[in-house]
Amino acid sequence: MALTIKVLANGRVPDTLGDPVYSPSSATPAKVAIVKIWRFTNTSGGAVVLNAYFQKGGDDFDPLKARHILARDVLIPPGHSVIDDLDLTLGPGDGIYADASAGDVVDVVVSGMERDA
Amino acid sequence: MAIIIKSLGDGILNSSDLTNIFTTATDGKTALVRNIRFVNPSTQSPAWLTVAFVRTTGTPGQPGPARLLGPGPVYIEPKEMYALAEELALEYGGTGSSAISDAIQAKAVQSDGVTAIPIDYVISGIEREA
Questions:
Q1: B120 touches chain A (CB under 8 A)
Q2: Beta strands B62-63; B81-84: pairing state
Q3: Lesser CB count within 10 Å: N end or C end of chain B?
């Protein structure tokens, strides 16, 4: 039941919504998590528009179930970062999602902690 | 007595009257709300959001007065987010006339002050047995 401090996810933000950026495992041993902070950095030479969502139960992105968790259409100038440091608690299988107006140019790093559900 | 980390709630607030967005009566557990995110997904219409605390006592439950949890109403521009970032403890327990459950209520209206406007919300926090 100990909390594990870890990088929950890292990668690049796609331009389409599908799989979650991060989802605590719902398979045994199921996990829960607290996302402490996630960072988005635009590595391209042009501005990009970013959206981020929470979806109860995770799985494929579903616009009817997903909720915005950042301001809509956040503009990230080239070389700049957007940081969300508001704690987000996730149950087993819950998912966080993001997409950008240009794919594969926004780095994302998700920091937080996990423990068994 | 374990602490349960979870998303306490999420949904689309679409009410011009204060309505429950979370209550400890649902799971029968006390809760510590870490924060609540509200996003106005409209591209055109601003929203005026009110968030309140309500304690219900007794059996059957008798809701008490709504207590504002922040400035009310809060103005949220189109596409912007408002976060209630301060923690809030919510109780559950007791029996009979001393039974208690707590709730968070919210409403959001357009500029006319009457018409509801949809607002995404996500509530983060923890629960434990009362």
A1: yes
A2: unpaired
A3: N
- What pTM did the predictor assign? 0.94
| B62 located within any domain | yes
Both tokens of B48, joined, read: 């005026």
Domains and CATH numbers, chain A: 4-112 (2.60.120)
Spell out which chain A residues touch chain B, with contact meaning CB-CB distance below 8 angstroms: 1, 32-34, 54, 56, 67-73, 86-91, 94, 115
Per-residue pLDDT tens listing for chain A (117 residues)? 688 999 999 999 999 999 999 999 999 999 999 999 999 999 999 999 999 999 999 999 999 999 999 999 999 999 999 999 999 999 999 999 999 999 999 999 999 999 999
Q: Which residue of A has its CA nearest to B12?
A: A67
| Domain limits for position B81 | 8-129
End-to-end C-alpha distance for chain B, whole angstroms: 8
ipTM of the complex model: 0.91
Phi/psi region, residue A5 (left: phi>0; alpha: psi -120 to 50; beta: rest), is beta
Let me know if residue B2 belongs to a domain: no
